[in-house]
Amino acid sequence: GFGLDILITSGRWRDELERNVRSPYGFDIGFAYWIKRWNIGVRCNFSWQKLERSIYQNSFEWPKNDPTSLIMPELELGYDLLNNQKIRFFPSIIGGISILKPPGADETEDEPLPEYYSDFYFIKGFLGASLTADVKIRNFADPAEWKSNKSYMGARIRVGYNWLNWESDNPALNGDLFYFAIGINLFGHSFD
What we know:
The structure is a single chain. The chain is mainly β. The chain is built from 1 helix and 11 strands, in the order E-H-E-E-E-E-E-E-E-E-E-E. It has one helix at residues 16-20, and strands at 2-13, 25-35, 38-50, 55-57, 60-62, 67-79, 82-83, 87-101, 122-139, 152-163, 177-188. The strands form 2 sheets. Strands 1-2-3-6-8-9-10-11 form an 8-stranded antiparallel β-barrel. A two-stranded antiparallel ribbon has the order 4-5. Strand 2 (25-35) and strand 3 (38-50) form a beta hairpin. It starts with a strand and ends with a strand.
């Protein structure tokens, strides 16, 4: 089976990140393949926030209240613990790349950004874990056919934690990300 979800996300930083960067808000889009209770997926989170404090790198300043972009493409592997006609629930392990940066030239409409902003492009691999629950709003098969056709549309709730690694580039970015996401999921599967 195949699944597609679009979620609205909100996060909470930990450690130094919590003091230096405001909470991220954005959206998450994912595509997954399901086979014998296993979920193999790719997804990407796009979030925006502002700096709570100035960040310094190579004697340059990324000033307080400047906007930031967070991009997190990832791979996930999960396993259905529960999948019936009303609910689907599965934990996942995650690996990906986290990118924190100022907005690019194509993302700003005002004056051009300083050239030294390229010093504030932080990219690192990360690991994470999540719990996902789908509340099935509409099953696309009759209850008698459910064992052979599990297609549905549902509300998806996702909670997770990502262990980030930006602190090796800048101590002001030490910390991790706890997040919550809610949205819609479409899933199609049939043995026919």
